[in-house]
Design brief:
Layout lengths: L13 H24 L3 H7 L7 H11 L2 H9 L1 H7 L1 H17 L3 H17 L4 H14 L6 H15 L4 H15 L6 H14 L5 H16 L4 H18 L1 H15 L5 H13 L6 H19 L4 H17 L6 H15 L16 H19 L1 H8 L4 H4 L1 H8 L4 H18 L7 H8 L4 H8 L2 H10 L16 H14 L3 H10 L9 H18 L3 H17 L3 H16 L4 H17 L2 H7 L1 H5 L7 H16 L2 E2 L3 H17 L3 H16 L3 E2 L7 H29 L7 H11 L22 H14 L13 H13 L12 H7 L45 H4 L6
Parallel strand pairs: 1-2
Helix pairs in contact: 3-4, 3-6, 4-7, 5-6, 5-7, 7-9, 9-11, 10-11, 11-12, 11-13, 12-13, 12-14, 13-14, 13-15, 14-15, 15-17, 17-19, 17-20, 19-23, 20-23, 23-25, 23-26, 24-27, 25-28, 28-30, 29-30, 30-32, 31-32, 32-35, 35-37, 38-39, 38-42
GO molecular function, one term: protein phosphatase regulator activity
Subunit structure: Serine/threonine-protein phosphatase 4 (PP4) occurs in different assemblies of the catalytic and one or more regulatory subunits. Component of the PP4 complex PPP4C-PPP4R4.
Subcellular location: Cytoplasm
């Protein structure tokens, strides 16, 4: 027996009973449609089809005796039947489709229109067969009483017109169109005729158009229904392109002028938009004597008319000013500019202090239209800069630009953010005028605005740093002190939101910062933030973006002590981190290091910590490392790195012998085959690896140059702060280059690639980028790194020199040893063939790992790893 329910469970109060009854009633209501939807045996019998029937027989049966839903399914499957058996489909199925369409509902009609168009696009049958079998069905249903169905068949017909021969078009479409366009026909028939005429003009010669088509066009332009006149007016652009300039001026232009004075506002709007789109066809006289007065009249009357006309006018204003540029008098130029400024602030003068719920619907609709007008003005702002000349921007348009950037509505700010890069390019040396607006948009409360701005953020910042009144490198962006706080605030705002794609994009764009701001600014304001994101963020694409950007920051960092600290953090907090998730991110970082840095840099600092993860206790980490091993092997050069190759082979051999996870073992076996097929790069240049080797040598040279520039900066500070001259810089850069004569004579010096520039040009570009990334801080950064010294003592017993072993090395010795090109004759003793794996333990990380719990929980090290903690 079950125990009696508690008093709380047996609540028979009146409110409780009513609640139970309501629940029961809801259940019965939910259950009723289910019972009604059940099919009776008779219905099931009627819907059942013999499984032995072929596709064609089943289609014929369902179209003859099936229900509407079954017939619709057959028509939707018609393109497949045409591809499978076109002859039988045309002979047996299509006649049944014609019969079904006579009494078909809207859904079947729409499905048929789409299927007929798909058959045309698939080219399942010849054009002749398609015309014979399908064209009459399409023409028959053009005037369906349902507008949606009629438009669907019309779209299919317009696509068919593109491929039909002239004779077929003349007999099957153009000749019947003469009667269909008469006033005695329905409005729907005349609207269809307008759109067909617009399509036909590109298929016939000018004589045929003038004799047979233009009379119909004139008749429809003077139709009694404003809908027909408006529709025909919008087709005049296509007709003008088909008949040429002379006929356009003599036939189309007079019709447009008359339609621009029409009593219907939609007709006048269509005439205006068509005139704007045809501006390029007309000569200067037509523009100044005919079109300009019409445009002036249209603009003057626009504020008194419907707001929809203002929306169209504001959208086309940029194209209009560009097309009429050069024929404006100074007074007309000023009036058009003032008209644009007025549109940019339309609706902002009204009081908005009242509650939105109390605003009448008409006022709300009007405000939405005003927002669309201002949005269109923002879209046309670059064209208006050209209209007034960028030199006059500050006097004429800066206040308008300020208003658009501070507009209360997000769509307006979003649009001006999209245009910000174009504005910056047009202003060129005057780009400093919009520094404050850049900060404003970076600090915008809407992430949509930020997302639009950062699409071209690197280019904008590059223009800001090189343009303006002060383009001296020492003072780059010095006139914009709020830039770095704005950038950091923008990143934090994106990180706090759920829009991780915006956050990812922003981190990717931050890779441009080494070319814009100083190395110290990046180190103190951005680099640690990248570490934090890699360690704490839960979105993998964001973590990878932060990892790649951090590698670029490291690539252009100008101080060895800072570089060594970053490398140590990467190895200790990621590669030797407690969380397997961090170790996975370390392998991602290694992949970026291989891509961005030279081979020697990776081998010196990251090769051994990476292959050490072959002993990781987590299968996912070992699996990811296996995928990375081919790229790791590609960084080795023989014979200088023979000892590292032995270490790699030993680790792979251990994986093959000791791996217990079947998935990892399968990947290891595939990786071994791929590693065996790889050809090793040699220290000397080889023809097949020439491009890669030369690019790698360039990376090494630039890494060495960064070190020597740091030494020069310190010498400069010691010599009363005298700046390093370009001559000294170029001399040092030349000294680090390998002489051209040392390269093989039978190989050209220029490297074919995506940038077809000469080596000297490439060197100048890299020189300018390196100079831009130079730090000119007066005080050098001197910090003590206890961990570096501690790891140095460990490396002396381990037999190799990791990054931490360079903690107390002088600047000059580091310059000589850290990034020097390796030779086959001199193998560093730190990389001797008998070198064991580094004796570092992941348990020595000095930071609390936020990923050490939850689904990415830390697994304790196994005995194979703990046994390697013997070195102090």
């Amino acid at each position: 027996m079950h125990p009696p329910p508690s008093a709380a469970a047996m609540d028979f109060s009146q409110n409780s009973l009513f609640g139970y009854m309501e629940d029961l009633q809801e259940l019965t209501i939910i259950e009723r449609p289910v019972r009604r939807s059940l099919k009776t045996p008779e219905e099931i019998e009627r819907l059942t089809v013999d499984e032995d029937l072929s596709d064609i027989e089943r289609a014929v049966y369902l179209l003859s005796a099936g229900q509407d839903v079954q017939g619709t399914s057959v028509i939707a499957n018609l393109p497949f039947l045409m591809r499978q058996n076109p002859t039988e489909t045309l002979r047996r199925v299509l006649p049944k489709v014609r019969e079904a369409l006579h009494v078909a509902g809207v859904e079947m009609q729409l499905t048929a229109a789409v299927s007929f168009l798909t058959i045309l696009q698939d080219e399942s049958v010849s054009i002749h067969s398609y015309t014979h079998s399908f064209l009459q069905v399409i023409l028959l249903h053009l005037e369906h009483r349902d507008t949606g169905v009629s438009n669907a068949w019309l779209e299919t017909l317009l696509s068919v017109i593109e491929v039909l021969p002239k004779e077929t078009l003349r007999h099957e479409i153009l000749n019947p169109l003469v009667s269909k366009a008469q006033l005695s026909q329905t409005v729907q028939s005349r609207l269809v005729s307008c759109k067909i005429l617009g399509k036909l003009t590109n298929k016939f010669d000018a004589h045929t158009i003038k004799r047979e088509i233009l009379p119909l066009v004139k008749s429809l332009c003077q139709d009694v229904e404003y809908e027909v006149r408006s529709c025909m007016c919008r087709q005049l652009e296509n007709i003008a392109q088909g008949i040429g300039t002379e006929l356009t001026k003599s036939v189309v232009l007079p019709e447009l002028i008359e339609l621009s004075r029409d009593e219907g506002s939609s007709v006048r709007l269509a005439a205006f938009e068509t005139l704007v789109n045809l501006l390029d066809i007309f000569d200067t006289d037509d523009r100044s004597q005919t079109i300009l007065p019409l445009v002036k009249s249209f603009c003057e009357k626009s504020f008194k008319a419907d707001e929809s006309i203002l929306i169209s006018l504001s959208f086309h204003l940029g194209k209009l000013c560009h097309g009429l540029y050069g024929i404006f008098t100074p007074d007309q130029h000023l009036r058009f500019l003032e008209f644009y400024k007025k549109l940019c602030t339309l609706g902002l003068q009204q009081e908005n202090g009242h509650n939105e719920n109390q605003i009448p619907p008409q006022i709300l609709e009007q405000e939405k239209k005003y927002i669309s007008v201002r949005k269109n003005c923002a879209y046309n702002f670059p064209a208006m800069i050209v209209f007034v000349d960028p030199k006059n921007f500050h006097m004429e348009l800066y206040s308008t630009f300020f208003c658009l950037c501070h507009d209360p509505e997000v769509p307006v700010r979003y649009t001006i953010a999209i245009c910000f890069y174009e504005v910056s390019k047009l202003l060129n040396s005057g780009v400093y005028l919009i520094h404050k607006e850049l900060i404003t948009l970076l600090q915008d409360e809407s992430l949509e605005v930020l997302d639009a701005l950062i699409d071209h953020l690197p280019e904008i910042l590059e223009l800001m740093s090189t343009g303006g009144e002060s383009s001296v490198q020492e003072n780059k962006l010095s006139s914009l002190p709020d830039l770095i706080p704005a950038l950091t605030a923008a990143e934090q705002r994106a990180a706090a939101s759920l829009k991780w794609r915006t956050h990812e994009k922003l981190l990717q764009k931050y890779a441009c910062l080494p070319h814009v701001i100083s190395s110290d600014q990046i180190y103190y304001r951005f680099l640690q933030r990248m570490f934090t994101i890699m360690m704490t963020n839960n979105v993998l694409p964001v973590q990878k973006a932060a990892s790649r950007t951090l590698c670029i920051f490291l690539r252009y960092n100008r101080k060895q002590e800072q570089r060594h600290e970053v490398i140590q953090k990467l190895i200790e907090q990621l590669g030797q981190g407690k969380s397997y998730w961090n170790r996975l991110r370390f392998l991602d970082t290694c992949e970026f290091i291989i891509e961005i840095f030279s081979k020697s840099f990776f081998c010196k600092y990251f090769f051994l910590p990476a292959i050490e993860l072959t002993h990781d206790p987590v299968a996912n980490v070992r699996m990811k490392l296996c995928y990375l091993l081919p790229k790791v092997k590609s960084t080795l050069k023989i014979p200088a790195d023979k000892h590292l190759l032995q270490q790699l082979e030993m680790c792979v051999r251990k994986l093959l012998c000791q791996e217990k996870d079947k998935d990892v073992l399968a990947i290891v076996k595939r990786t071994v085959l791929e590693l065996d097929r790889m050809e090793m790069s040699m220290d000397a240049f080889q023809k097949k690896f020439y491009e890669k080797d030369l690019l790698d040598q360039e990376k090494e040279r630039e890494e060495l140059l960064l070190l020597e520039m740091e030494q020069l900066e310190k010498e400069k500070q010691q010599n009363d702060g005298r700046p390093m001259s370009d001559k000294v810089f170029e001399k040092k850069r030349r000294d680090t280059k390998t002489p051209t004569q040392s390269l093989p004579k039978n190989i050209p010096i220029s490297v074919p690639g995506p940038s077809s520039v000469t080596p000297s040009t490439s060197k100048e570009i890299k020189k300018s980028k390196l100079i831009r990334s130079q730090s000119f801080n007066n005080q050098a950064f001197h910090a003590k790194y206890g961990n570096l010294e501690k790891c140095a003592s460990k490396s002396s017993t381990a037999g190799y020199t990791p990054v931490s072993g360079l903690g107390k090395t002088s600047v000059l010795s580091l310059t000589d040893d850290s990034f020097r090109t390796r030779n086959a004759s001199s193998v560093p003793p730190s990389f001797s063939p008998n070198t064991p794996l580094p004796s570092t333990s992941r348990g020595t990380g000095n930071s609390v790992d936020p990923k050490s719990s939850g689904s990415k929980d830390t697994q304790p090290r196994k005995a194979t790893l703990k046994s390697r903690k013997s070195n102090p």
